[in-house]
Amino acid sequence: MEGSAVGGTKRLPRSETPDLHGAFPRLSDAQLDALAARGQRRSTSPGEVLYREGERDCDFFAIVAGTVTMVDGYGGPAERVHFVHGPGRFLGELGLLTGRPAFLTALAGDHGEVVAVPLERLKQLVAGDPALGDLILRAYLLRGSLLIEAGVGVRLVGSRYSPDARPLREFLARNRVPHTWTDLERDHTAEGLLRQLGVSPHETPVVIWHGTQVLRNPSVEELARTIGLPVPTSDEVVWDLAIIGAGPAGLAAAVYGASEGLGTLALDGVATGGQAETSSRIENYLGFPAGLSGAELADRAVVQAEKFGARFSLGAEATALEELDGHRLVRLADGRAIRARSVLIATGARYRRLDVPRLEEFEGSSVYYAATEIEARMCRNDPVVVVGGGNSAGQAAAFLAAHAAEVRLLIRHGDLGRDMSRYLVDQIERTPGIEVLRHTEVRELLGDDSLEAVVVEDNRTGERRRRDARSLFVFIGAEPHARWLADQLALDDRGFILTGADTRTDADDPLWLAAGRQPLPLETNRPGVFVAGDVRSGSIKRVASAVGEGAMAVQLVHEYLERVGGDAAGRVAPVDRR
Ligand SMILES: Cc1cc2nc3c(=O)[nH]c(=O)nc-3n(C[C@H](O)[C@H](O)[C@H](O)COP(=O)(O)OP(=O)(O)OC[C@H]3O[C@@H](n4cnc5c(N)ncnc54)[C@H](O)[C@@H]3O)c2cc1C
Question: Which residues of the chain have pLDDT under 70?
Answer without folding.
Answer: 1-14, 232-236, 566-578
